[in-house]
Write a structure and sequence with these properties.
3-stranded antiparallel sheet; alpha+beta; 22 helices; Transferase(Phosphotransferase), domain 1; Phosphorylase Kinase, domain 1; about 525 residues
């Protein structure tokens, strides 16, 4: 274990630089998908029994709710290749501060690093609506300030201060800082030089150094200011914005909403000061908490750049008595997803062409063609693909499929009419070509659909598996890649469950993809 004298820089040097290797080993970005899936009833560290998965697979880890002797705990299982540095492990297991979540136990489980934390059942600031000024002043601000001070005086920059990492405790009378997974140690120069970390909505602007950024304790305090904006408003000041739009908001001169005023407005402006050397830190915030008068900073936190010529907005429609207009392609895509039926009318309007021309002249001819489509849903989907930030996502007729695999799973059930229409209208093939999937396989799929429509789901699913290069499938909540891994899962299933599995086109397609047609035939002979 490392004591404070080994890790804590001199007080006068607080504000120091981290190496990415402290928390993320080389190549880990490519390994983050390799994870272990734990089932309810399994145990970790002998006595912690898994209850349920608390979140979807994250970039860095899976988080589970577990119990030991009737008490709830949280177990964080890192993906293969991810783990904090030894120095960070030592700090998190030894720290005893009321505003920092400490690691109760850590170790290896089947080759994957895990951490066990206390379970904070009162939720996070992310769960909270707009909070009262009194609560923010008496609970939120002092808790976060003291927690950050403890991290910073030990030379640690958190790098991801955001509402979902701030946990309520003691009947909502205390806030605890958690999830130090991407934190790192500062060096003697006082800053962290690394690729940009954190969450865009809660990341303050930092100075770029080639392909890296310099992050110091001031970075965490900038995030602190953005968290307080969410506490006042009930939502992020950048809610619904793309990364590009957030960047433009900073560059144009960030002006706080009118709800953020008075002493709290002074605090938030101090925390969001563009000059990191002038940005408020622990001492200024502590003085603010103690009621001292603090000089306000300028109303506009960042100096306004020269105003560029304004783009003309598109009037999208009127909903619940209010007119909805969009100013960017990202806002247009969000409006389409929320109001699909209205989008089917918008796609035929000349104003749409004029609006898109302001951002991308190369799209004009494509958009003009959409007005001629007989099926408006097909036209709207293609419009969305042309302007969408993430063309890998499938959003059609008001329904969202995050990945191709999720779409194929729904299609294979035979019950999802929207998924069927996406297939039979040719949009699945369009999606695959647009995203540069293997041309030979896509041609095969197109011929198959043209010949049989959606009647041969096993063949369709098999081709889709091949297109994704997938060898894994989710069976009863467990991700498996081989028949050997499947056997222990089936041993716990009833005959009825196995029978239903063997009838699944998705499962049959997986076996076909791996070349197990003969094994499939044998299993059907036994169970069907």
């Amino acid at each position: 274990m490392i004591n404070a004298s080994e890790t804590q820089p001199p007080v006068s040097n607080i504000g120091q630089i981290i190496n990415a290797g402290e928390t993320i080993p080389p190549g880990s970005a490519n390994l983050s998908g390799q994870s272990i899936a734990l089932l309810a009833g399994e145990s970790v560290a002998d006595s912690y029994v898994i209850n349920s998965l608390m979140n979807k697979q994250g970039k860095q880890s899976n988080v589970y709710l577990a119990k030991k002797w009737g008490k709830s705990y949280v177990i964080k299982i890192y993906h293969n290749g991810w783990h904090p540095s030894n120095q960070m492990q030592s700090f998190l297991t030894s720290v005893r501060h009321p505003n920092i979540a400490h690691v109760i136990e850590c170790g290896q489980h089947e080759g994957y690093y895990y951490e066990i934390y206390e379970y904070y059942s009162e939720g996070t600031l992310e769960d909270a609506e707009a909070l009262s000024i009194t609560h923010i002043q008496n609970v939120i601000v002092p808790s976060i300030n003291e927690g950050l001070h403890e991290l910073h005086r030990n030379g640690i920059v958190h790098c991801d201060i955001k509402p979902s990492n701030l946990f309520y405790s003691d009947n909502n009378n205390k806030v605890v800082i958690g999830d130090c997974g991407i934190s790192g140690y500062a060096n003697s120069n006082g800053k962290l030089v690394d690729a940009v970390r954190g969450t865009p909505e809660y990341a303050p602007r930092v100075k770029a150094l080639l392909w890296s950024t310099a992050m110091s304790p001031a970075y965490d305090y900038g995030s602190f200011g953005l968290v307080l904006c969410k506490a006042v408003l009930g939502h992020s000041i950048f809610e619904g914005m793309s990364v590009e739009e957030i960047s433009k908001a900073w560059e144009g001169g960030l002006i706080l909403p009118s709800q953020i005023s008075g002493r709290l407005g002074v605090l938030i402006r101090g925390l969001l000061n563009e000059d990191e050397n002038q940005r408020w830190g622990y001492l200024q915030v502590k003085r603010w908490c103690e009621g001292e008068y603090m000089r306000p900073v300028n109303r506009s936190i960042y100096s306004h750049a020269k105003k560029e010529s304004q783009n003309k907005p598109l009037i999208f429609g009127r909903f619940e008595g209010q007119t909805l207009s969009v100013n960017t392609l990202h806002q247009l895509s969000q409006a389409i997803k929320k109001h699909w039926n209205q989008a089917s009318r918008i796609v035929k309007r000349r104003e749409l062409i004029d609006f898109v021309r302001q951002f991308d002249k190369n799209l004009v001819d494509k958009i003009r063609e959409l007005a001629l489509y007989q099926d408006a849903d097909v036209a709207v989907y293609k419009l969305l693909m042309y302007i969408e930030d993430d063309p890998q996502q499938i959003y059609f007729c008001g329904k969202e499929y995050n990945f191709l695999s999720e779409y194929v799973e729904q299609l294979a059930t035979g019950k999802d009419e929207i998924a069927k229409k996406f297939l039979t209208t040719g949009l699945l093939v369009f999606y695959l070509r647009y995203n540069d999937y293997d041309q030979v396989q896509v041609d095969r799929l197109e011929q198959l659909i043209h010949r049989n429509g959606d009647d041969d789901m096993t063949s369709i699913s098999t081709i889709c598996f091949a297109l994704q290069g997938k060898k894994a499938i989710d069976i009863f909540g467990v991700n498996i890649e081989t028949l050997d891994a499947l056997i222990p899962i089936l041993s716990k299933c009833s005959i009825k469950e196995i029978d239903e599995l063997l009838q699944s086109d998705h499962f049959v397609a997986w076996l076909n993809r791996l070349g197990y047609e003969n094994e499939m035939r044998k299993m059907k002979e036994v169970f069907i």
